[in-house]
């Protein structure tokens, strides 16, 4: 039995190592994009978001 079976590819099996930007370029050429929602949620509460950004978020940045 192969001791490395099911563990994943060895470095010899992977032809290249890509940077994050290089991976993004390849995905763009293949027609893929960053996953961004097409529309806002119906349940979105703008007033609550504004309050959170003004009061809660700055407290967490310390």
Summarize the structure.
The protein is mostly helical and about 60 residues long. Helix content is about 40%, strand content about 0%.
List keywords for this structure.
mainly alpha
Structural overview:
By secondary structure, the protein is an all-alpha fold. Helices cover 40% and strands 0% of the residues. The protein is built from 2 helices and no strands. It is elongated.
Layout of helices and strands, plus pairs?
Elements: H1 20-29, H2 46-60
Work out the helicity level: 40-55%
Q: Can you count the helices? A: 2
Major sheet description: none
Give the beta-strand count: 0
Hey, roughly how much beta strand do the residues contain?
A: under 5%
How do the SSEs run, as a string of H and E?
HH
The 3D shape can be described as: elongated
Unreliable stretches: none
Mean pLDDT: 79
**Overall SS class:** mainly alpha
Distance between the termini: 54 Å
Q: Measured on Cα atoms, how large is the radius of gyration?
A: 22 Å
């Amino acid at each position: 039995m192969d001791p490395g079976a099911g563990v994943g590819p060895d470095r010899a099996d992977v032809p290249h190592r890509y940077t994050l930007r290089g991976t993004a370029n390849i995905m763009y050429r293949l027609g893929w994009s960053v996953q961004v929602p097409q529309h806002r949620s119906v349940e979105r509460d703008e007033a609550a978001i504004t309050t959170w950004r003004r009061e809660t978020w700055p407290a967490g940045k310390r």
